[in-house]
Amino acid sequence: MKQGRIVLNQQARRVTALADGKLLLDNGNPLADTSPWLAPATGTVYGVALNHRSLLEQLEADFQQPPYQKAPATPVLFIKPRNTHAGHSSAIALPTQAGKVFAGGALGVVIGKVASKVAEDQALAVLAGYTVVNEISLEESSFYRPAVKAKCRDGFCPMGPWLVDAAAINPLNVEIRSYLNGELAETNHSRDWLRSVPQLIAALSQFMTLQPGDVIIPATPLRQLEIRPGDTVAVEIDGIGRLENRLIAEESAQ
Amino acid sequence: MKHARIRLPGEADIHAVLVNDDHSVQLADGRRFAEDAVEWLPPAEGTVFALGLNYADHAAELAFKAPTEPLVFLKSPATLTGHRQVSVRPDNLLYMHYECELVVIIGKTAKNVSREQALDYVAGYSVCNDYAVRDYLENYYRPNLRVKNRDTLTPIGPWWVDRGDVANPASLTLRTWVNGELRQQGNTSDMVFDIPFLIEYLSSFMTLSPGDMIATGTPEGLADVVPGDEVIVEVEGVGRLVNHIVSEAQYADRQAQTV
Q: What pLDDT, in 10s, does the model give residues A110-155?
């Protein structure tokens, strides 16, 4: 089953997509117009940095130098706070004076049950399902300090349109395709991740209790898909959906 | 006026309450309960920002130069707990320390706010104990979530105090007691980046919303704490937050009893 959240008459409502593509509102009414979309999950969004081999290979030598001294021993985590959360088809304002901005096509793993100290082989049982995420970021020249300024701008974490049931997807075999203005611009695959989704759920829940609605972004690739105001960026995962957003200049957003 | 969020024993509802001078709480329906008769929750719900190295003396204590730009990290609700709760010290550690901090609670949507206007966006002030497990520090997004965002390791509260009731947030004494002994003392006047600057800085690249909280950093005087310790952090004129350290096994026992 596919579930989303939209705004109808200024209220957040749940919608379900039927097998024939028709949409139903949470009260069973038909819906012909997908009004503004909201992110399908409302909890804390945890991202995992440096979990993509393309990135690790490029940085391997740097990690032996100051300030890092040695490669990371545990998952490198960050938070995408609520001001970054946005829905499918929303316009995202990019700063024009803060350097390059990059798309980050990614899987969103949505928690369905309270999860504390979960074993790797039990990890998939705590999931509600999956969504599509674009983990937008400014260019990062260093991974030493938390990247709040680069990653926590308004609208920098669109998610959706759908939350798809966990049973429908194998998180060890996911291909993520990113499109810039309709052209395929980047492809990455879960086999390139250092730690898998079950390993990450086990590692995170070891010290933080995960709540229903929390989202884990298991990996974003090496940043190479630059986005600019006027562009349209889409992220697509087979069986989950296609998340598309327009990019505008920050000044015109006000 | 002091405001808090509490639960009554055995009930799921969260109540927004006023806190009296004797620390009893007053519900909207007029019922009144003593301080030790309720479960104290974090005083607000929102994005939690915390500052690293925001007191020059503390930065020196950790052998760091004070930063030239605020060192900001984020916390999730997972790590928050309330007044009179317990915090878990993981087993087999060398060093876990408290950090007494003044917390700013945002009351109004803030984007591109100047430092001159910044305090207009503050609803009030609270207190937190921003525990850190130093054994788990790694040099990636430092301080990393494993150090700073563990279950139970950010007690916050007990309440928040209206902005108007704190005459000068830039001149408040911070104190930490461990088992009754004064261990940490400082003053918010020693912040590297003051509250108006932090609101101007954060709102320059992101929108702050009502309920967002900024833990503004801690002065020098850190020390290890172990299971059995009572740790009290206090900000003058704001509040006094009590917390007890337990071991992993003690915490598991407590959880089993409440299920």
A: 999 999 999 999 999 999 999 999 999 999 989 999 999 999 999 9
- A113 shares a domain with A1: no
Chain B residues in contact with A79 (beta carbon < 8 A): 74-76, 145, 149
Query: Which parts of chain B are beta strand (E)?
Result: 2-7, 15-19, 25-26, 32-33, 39-40, 48-52, 71-75, 80-81, 85-89, 96-97, 100-106, 122-129, 132-133, 154-162, 173-178, 181-187, 213-215, 230-235, 239-247
**Is B140 within 8 Å of A95 when comparing Cβ atoms?**
no
Average pLDDT over residues B92-109: 97
Q: Chain A residue with minimal CA distance to B136?
A: A74
Same domain, A197 and A178: yes
Question: How far A73 CA lies from chain B's nearest CA (Å)?
Answer: 8
- B106 contacts B209 by C-beta, under 8 angstroms: yes
Looking at the structure, tell me whether residues A27 and A117 fall in a common domain.
no
> Is B76 in contact with A154 (Cβ distance < 8 A)?
no
Which chain A residues are closer than 8 Å to B54 by Cβ?
none
Q: Write the burial class of residue A198 (CB in 10 Å: 0-12 exposed, 13-18 middle, 19+ buried).
A: buried
Based on the fold, state whether residues A142 and A188 are members of the same structural domain. Answer: yes
Phi and psi torsions of B78, nearest 5°: -55, -35
Beta bridge partners of A101: A138
**Residue A254 confidence class, pLDDT cut points 50, 70, 90:** very low
Q: Which H/E stretch holds residue B202? A: helix B195-203
Q: How many beta carbons lie within 10 A of that of residue A18, not counting itself?
A: 11
Domain that holds residue A28: 1-35
Contact B78 A44 (CB under 8 A): yes
pLDDT at B9 over 50: yes
Same domain (yes/no): A7, A52 = no
CA distances from A189 to A76, A136, A158, A193, B128 (A): 19, 18, 20, 8, 42
In this prediction, residue A252 carries a pLDDT of 54
Domains of chain B listed by start with CATH number: 1-41 (2.30.30.370), 43-258 (3.90.850.10)
pLDDT digits (tens, 9 = 90+) for B38-77: 999 999 999 999 999 999 876 677 767 767 899 999 999 9
Whether residues A51 and A105 share a domain: the answer is yes
CATH code for position A216 = 3.90.850.10
The 10s digit of each residue's pLDDT in B124-161 is: 999 999 999 999 999 999 999 999 999 999 999 999 99
Q: What's the pTM value of the predicted model, to 2 decimals?
A: 0.96
Contact A82 B206 (CB under 8 A): no
pLDDT tens per residue across span B204-252: 999 999 999 999 999 999 999 999 999 999 999 999 999 999 999 999 9
